[in-house]
Design a protein that fits this description.
378 residues; alpha/beta; Rossmann fold; Glycerate kinase, domain 2; six-stranded mixed beta sheet; five-stranded parallel beta sheet; 13 strands; 19% strand; elongated
């Protein structure tokens, strides 16, 4: 029997790697000779770097950077053999800034550029980037400035790339862009389709959660419009789906670095070779902390379902929400809650790994009993 264990993380309980190990443990309790592949999964959000680092055997690296407000920070990413996996939230994460200290007009992506430079110095030439959870809305200008692009006012003075400074933008000089960055390949995990500007743009949709007032939203949208117009991108890159991701980082990656925006779940599936791994599998075991009708809307399990088309999928979850039965029409043959009895949330989170292993064990026992019964009937 071959089972591929490809779960996402169970938030606040276990990482994707720990979840994969728990599923495999449960399988081997019943079927010690089973071929059991552990492939941690993620989308473009939390756990993106960790899951890919575990799956691809990359080494963890730390680099000194500046956070969204220019304070020293240490950003972690993964690196090996020319490949870097990183998340912008490591440098400019919204969670790094308390709500009362958020000043969105001053926030910069400069630290993301510093991360890229550190990876380039380490030999990276291909980047897999998660861009969720940013505290910024500068259209990626800070990142580009760190990489050598100059943003100038009408008198030729260099701007720092923050939204406040971009209000004075007159010209862009990209001649100093680090040639290593220009030649590198960037694949961006992007699970939103917002353009850069307008009522569905980054400022209007995501600015308020980053501390933007209604006045800030109008100001920010104006500075991004000025940036895109100065670069000549108003009707091209700025209007593309995903340009508004992470305060315009999606725009900067695609317009200035040739980055490819794609579904985070699909990017991870491709990077870890899941479609190849499931060939010949009898079952795929996957899961995440909570499942409902939104589970297939660009999240990790949607990518697993596409990669494992034709292979029976069993999904495990801490909780099953409204509409979860829709998964049965997408290749899922079982939806298994891992909490076996009455418990508190704190107890469920603390005991998640053992509960997941137990649930996998029970499931395999049922599958084997069903297979034996079918053989008897034949």
């Amino acid at each position: 029997m071959k089972i591929v264990c490809a779960p996402d993380s169970f938030k606040e309980s276990m990482s994707a790697a720990e979840a994969a190990a728990a599923l495999a443990e449960g399988v081997r309790r019943v079927a010690p000779d089973a071929e059991c592949a552990e492939i941690p999964m993620a989308d473009g959000g939390e756990g993106f770097t960790e899951s890919l680092a575990d799956a691809l055997g990359l080494s963890a690296v730390e680099a000194p950077v500046l956070d969204a407000y220019g304070r020293p920070a240490l950003a972690r990413f993964a690196l090996a053999e020319g490949l870097a996996v990183m998340e912008c939230a490591q440098a400019i994460g919204l969670g790094m800034v308390p709500p009362e200290r958020r000043r969105i007009r001053e926030a910069s992506t400069f630290g993301v550029g510093q991360m890229i430079l550190a990876a380039l110095d380490g030999g990276a030439r291909e980047f897999l980037f998660g861009i969720g959870g940013s505290a910024t809305n500068d259209g990626g200008a800070g990142m580009l400035r760190a990489l050598g692009v100059r943003f100038l006012d009408a008198e030729g003075r260099e701007l720092d790339g923050s939204p406040a400074s971009l209000a004075r933008l007159d010209s862009i000089d990209a001649s100093g862009l680090d040639p290593r960055a220009a030649a590198a390949t960037f694949k961006i995990a992007c699970d939103v389709d917002n353009p850069l500007l307008g009522p569905r743009g980054s400022s209007a949709v995501y600015g308020p959660q980053k501390g933007a007032s209604p006045e800030d939203v109008a100001f920010l949208d104006g500075t991004l419009e000025r940036l895109a117009r100065t670069a000549g991108h108003l009707d091209s890159f700025a209007a593309a789906p995903g340009a508004g991701a992470a305060g315009g980082l999606g725009y900067a990656f695609s317009a200035f670095l040739g980055g490819e925006l794609q579904s985070g779940a699909d990017l991870v599936v491709e990077a870890v070779g899941l479609a190849e791994a499931v060939k010949g599998a009898d079952f795929v075991f996957t899961g995440e902390g909570a499942m409902d009708r939104q589970t297939l809307m660009g999240k990790t399990l949607s990518g697993v379902a596409r990669a494992a088309a034709g292979v029976p999928i069993v999904a495990f979850a801490g909780s099953l929400g409204e509409g979860v039965e829709e998964l049965y029409s997408h290749g899922f043959v079982g939806l298994v809650p891992i909490v076996a009895g009455v418990t508190t949330l704190e107890e469920a989170l603390a005991g998640g790994r053992e509960a997941l292993a137990d649930a996998a064990e029970r499931t395999v026992r049922l599958l084997l009993a069903g297979a034996a019964r079918s053989a008897d009937l034949l």
